Amino acid sequence: MSFSVRLTFEALQDLERLERFLVELALRHGDFDLPLRAADAIRQEMRILQTNPYTCRKVGPNPLERELVIPFGSSGYVALFEIIGEGEVVVSAIRHQRDDDYH
């Protein structure tokens, strides 16, 4: 079964915030490929949600609410999502693993 993946407005805002941070970090350290590498890592791992969202770890009492761990560098990112009905996944938040909790 294939799942369609949709990002909420809040998740898109999270991606924009992460991108701004990565651009600033890249400018400070001269690692100009950093934002692109992070975006590629996020994009690649998000593909798991199209085929195997049930393999991601559960979050709280709702068995359909889960989070995808996205490794990158020495830490990574976490995408909070919910499996909606048949064939749809909705990503509601994306955070760096060191960010404050989003639950």
Number of distinct helices: 3
Quaternary state reads single chain
Q: Between the first and last Cα atoms, what is the distance in angstroms?
A: 28 Å
Q: The biggest beta sheet, please?
A: 5 strands, mixed
What is the spatial order of strands in the main beta sheet? 1-5-4-3-2
Q: What is the CATH topology?
A: YaeB-like fold
Proportion of β residues? 25-35%
How would you state the average pLDDT, rounded?
Answer: 93
Q: Mind telling me the CATH class?
A: Alpha Beta
Could you give the order of the helices and strands? EHHHEEEE
Could you name the ranges where pLDDT drops below 50 across 5 or more consecutive residues?
none
**Considering the protein shown, what is the CATH homologous superfamily?**
RelE-like
Q: What structural class is derived from the secondary structure elements?
A: alpha+beta
- Helicity range: 25-40%
Structure notes:
- With 103 residues, the chain is of the alpha+beta class.
- It has one domain: YaeB-like fold (2-Layer Sandwich).
- The chain is 37% helix and 32% strand.
- The protein has a 5-stranded mixed beta sheet.
- Helix 1 (9-29) runs antiparallel to helix 2 (34-46).
- The mean pLDDT is 93.
Question: Secondary-structure blueprint of this entry?
Answer:
Elements (H helix, E strand, L loop, with lengths): L3 E4 L1 H21 L4 H13 L1 H4 L5 E2 L6 E8 L2 E10 L3 E9 L7
Parallel strand pairs: 1-5
Antiparallel strand pairs: 2-3, 3-4, 4-5
